[in-house]
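tokens incoming
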């Protein structure tokens, strides 16, 4: 009966990867990266978003030293996005449809030319939404370049969609052959987010699958990328240069799963990929997934299919709950003695009682903060924390913003990353090596 799984139409991989979204806003945003034709990042480019939906008609921003920009608090509507810099052709992207609670990724490649020369293109539809619900994310350049063969092709706009579409697709039988679902920070179970809210999100997602027409041919893998800080008596194996980390949980849910049993086979994250490769008879991408277990020993394809188990949400504990839309703030390289462009993060009280705030302060003098938070935050209310970096010396200068309040998770921390460079090294504009990726706090035991 192994062929039974080989005939499945849907495999759903739910992965708790702790990708922290960047900025949450009640309205929408446009963000992206600007490069020249050689691929080099371009700081100082003026980016203007114009639309009849804006009271002021036009809203502008400039790219930072990473070549990144973000125009926030945009009303839903049709936009034209213009990129201009002296010595380069002006690029205009027309027909950008911006719905509510959406962050459109609009990148640009600028060519040398006179300022009055203009290149106008129509926006492809759909524009990629780089947010999760009301939480948005601008992926850093290194992570995006790692999937350059996808993000710069039609696959990115046709196959990468908002996670909020998943439940509707599951209930209507419209899921693709493989789905990889990542929750936004507030329901990721990553501190300081509520584990109760995260559990309810998982339950709602699984219920949608089990109540849909594809449940009979579905395998669900749920895993976390952090080990929780618990003592592990088993030393991690080292199958290659990188080796394994501490053991993390995984749940396998399917009508053909060996229900109620613990599997003692060594699995790793590449095992999910190996399962997909086995199911679709695909070649391995690397030696790591080639050598990984395909996890088929966790299934019994001759058993009577297990019925769906529909669960109900829990009532989450009372009290104030602090939710940061992104706890990592990376300024990259900044010239000594100059101040970086500001970066803003949003803090929300997702609890049902008022959050009383004692202080929000950076731990290093080279960082400065301003906030709209005040002394308290009512339930479901949000405020912003804006940080700037003015390096006083060359080299890495990482620190924290400590948030002290009366939530049970206090104090919360925002991780600050920055590198001071001399004027001669100003063109570097690269994130510091220890900030490539998203879970910069993997060693904090969460």
């Amino acid at each position: 009966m192994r062929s039974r799984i080989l005939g499945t139409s849907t495999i759903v991989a739910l992965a708790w990867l702790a990708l922290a979204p960047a900025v949450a806003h009640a309205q929408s945003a446009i963000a992206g990266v600007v490069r020249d034709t050689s691929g080099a990042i371009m700081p100082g480019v003026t980016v203007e978003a114009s639309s009849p939906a804006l009271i002021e008609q036009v809203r502008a921003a400039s790219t930072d030293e990473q070549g990144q920009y973000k125009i926030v608090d945009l009303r839903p509507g049709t936009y034209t996005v213009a990129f201009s810099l002296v010595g380069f052709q002006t690029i205009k992207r027309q027909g950008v449809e911006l719905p509510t609670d959406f962050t459109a990724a609009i990148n640009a490649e600028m060519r040398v030319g006179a300022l009055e020369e203009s290149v106008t293109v129509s926006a492809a539809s759909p524009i990629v939404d780089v947010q999760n619900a009301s939480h948005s994310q601008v992926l850093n350049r290194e992570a995006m370049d790692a999937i350059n063969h996808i993000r710069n092709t039609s696959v990115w706009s046709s196959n990468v969609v908002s996670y909020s579409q998943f439940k509707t697709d599951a209930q209507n039988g419209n899921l693709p052959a493989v789905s990889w679902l990542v929750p936004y920070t507030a329901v990721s179970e990553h501190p300081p987010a509520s584990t109760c809210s995260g559990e309810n999100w998982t339950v709602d997602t699984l219920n949608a699958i089990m109540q849909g027409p594809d449940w009979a041919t579905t395998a669900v893998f749920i895993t976390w990328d952090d080990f929780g800080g618990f003592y592990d008596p088993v030393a991690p194996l080292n199958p290659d240069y990188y080796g394994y980390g501490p053991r993390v949980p995984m749940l396998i849910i399917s009508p053909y799963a060996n229900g109620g049993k613990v599997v003692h086979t060594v699995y790793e994250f590449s095992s999910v990929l190996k399962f997909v490769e086995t199911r679709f008879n695909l070649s391995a991408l690397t030696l790591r997934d080639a050598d990984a277990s395909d996890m088929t020993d966790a299934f019994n394809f001759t058993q009577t299919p297990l019925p769906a188990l529909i669960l109900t949400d829990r009532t989450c504990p009372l009290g104030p709950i602090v939710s940061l839309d992104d706890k990592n703030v990376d300024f990259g390289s900044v010239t000594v003695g100059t101040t970086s462009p500001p970066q803003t993060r949003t803090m929300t009280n997702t609890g049902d009682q008022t959050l009383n705030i004692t202080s929000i302060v950076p731990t290093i003098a080279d960082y400065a903060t301003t906030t709209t938070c005040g002394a308290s935050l009512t339930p479901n209310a949000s405020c912003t924390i804006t940080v700037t970096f003015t390096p006083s010396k060359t080299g890495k200068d990482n620190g924290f913003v400590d948030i002290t309040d009366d939530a049970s998770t206090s104090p919360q921390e925002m991780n600050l990353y920055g590198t001071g460079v001399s004027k001669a090294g100003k063109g570097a504009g690269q994130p510091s090596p220890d900030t490539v990726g998203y879970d910069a706090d993997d060693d904090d035991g969460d």
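note: The CA atoms of residues 43 and 198 lie 38 Å apart.
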